[in-house]
Amino acid sequence: MYLTPQHVLIAGATGLTGEHLLDRLLNEPTISRVLAPTRRPLAEHPHLENPVGEPGVVLPQLAGRVDIAYCCLGTTLKQAGSEAAFRAVDLDLVVAFAKRARELGARHLLAISAIGADPKSSIFYNRVKGEMEEALKAQGWPQLTLARPSLLLGDRLQPRLAERLAAPFSRLLLGKYHGIEAWTLARALWRLALEEEDGVRVVESDDLRRLGKN
User: What is the CATH number of domain 7-211?
Assistant: First the structure.
């Protein structure tokens, strides 16, 4: 069964994938309102509501009907500066955003996780992503979609050196380990939002590439 969401909430709209997804949402004729809280202002659009400020201040002030919510939040350990700061974004902020989205009536949350997410992983990044997934599951969403992309490909405003070095090699890998273009992931996320499938759905990177290919 396919749904047509009209009121969408998105976090991380200034990020690599979030920018592509926001552009898709604002150009989708079925959507009447996109609520996108950010730290810096976005370009104006007749269907866009853009509360600007720190998440701790903005999130409680969000209001209005929400059909679905996208969480495209994410940083790196280097950008965050410490493990605690990384967890504050990739775990705590994601969970807080999801909680607020549910309070506003959203029944479907689509969140970007990562390949290898596992709360028991010995790798810090994968462990935090796994803990994030478990925390979202515990919120009892009617429909929860967890996207696990491999290395994201695309031009960032603030380039990540490790990603730039790894990108050529990721294109040579097979299956779910093959790198995925951010615009492909964004398209896959939109298509997943149109599907009604109660419960938790985990979508690995190879399936995301297939869904967002055309």
Answer: 3.40.50.720
